[in-house]
Design goal:
This protein is α+β, with helices and mostly antiparallel strands. The chain has a single domain, classed as Alpha-D-Glucose-1,6-Bisphosphate, Chain A, domain 4 (2-Layer Sandwich). It has helices spanning 14-21, 108-115, 118-137, and strands spanning 2-10, 34-39, 44-51, 54-66, 70-75, 81-91, 94-103. Strands 1-7-6-5-4-3-2 form a seven-stranded antiparallel sheet, with helices on one face. Strand 4 (54-66) and strand 5 (70-75) form a beta hairpin. The longest helix is centred in the last third of the chain and has 20 residues, at 118-137. It is globular and about 45 Å long. It starts with a strand and ends in a 14-residue tail after the last helix. The relative contact order is 0.28.
């Protein structure tokens, strides 16, 4: 299993950062390799990705979600992965967003990429693009503030 943890400080309040992160269908605007995400219901999404020439489709389920604190998920089919994004108030208009993602590389190319730190750099650059996206907008594109308790 490969694990990546990266953080970025964004110059928006914690609710704005959190609210935007709940808008999964907007992820292709700042996540490299994510072709599309379809929100199936409050806790399930369907992803299409194309990373390093490898195309995948898979479903995820939100396993825990608490407004302005965290969103956690796991895959329910296809690629084995899970993760959590946490939100930490640094000031009235500054928030630290931390992503921890665990996944199982399948192919030799994915295993080599993980060993060389390609995954870390990808998550880091996706978070930097999220920072640019939300700071440029200054407001979220939507919000879902429901709670999902850990099973």
């Amino acid at each position: 299993m490969t694990s990546v943890t990266e953080s970025v400080d964004v110059d928006v309040d914690i609710s704005t950062a959190y609210n935007q992160w709940t808008q999964f269908e907007s992820f292709p605007e700042f996540m490299n390799g994510v072709e599309s995400i379809r929100q199936v219901d409050d806790t399930r999404t369907h992803w299409r990705t194309s990373i390093g020439g490898v195309e995948r489709e898979f479903d995820t389920e939100i396993t825990e979600q608490h407004p302005d604190e965290r969103v956690a998920w796991k895959s329910t089919d296809g690629t084995s992965h899970a993760g959590v994004v946490t939100f930490h108030r640094l000031g009235d208009n500054q928030t630290r967003v931390t992503a921890q993602i665990d996944w199982q590389p399948d192919s030799v190319v994915e295993k080599v990429g993980a060993a060389l730190g390609v995954d870390d750099r990808q998550v880091e650059s996706d978070l930097r693009r999220f920072k640019t996206f939300i700071e440029k907008r200054g407001a979220e594109t939507g919000a879902w503030r429901g709670n999902v308790d850990h099973p």
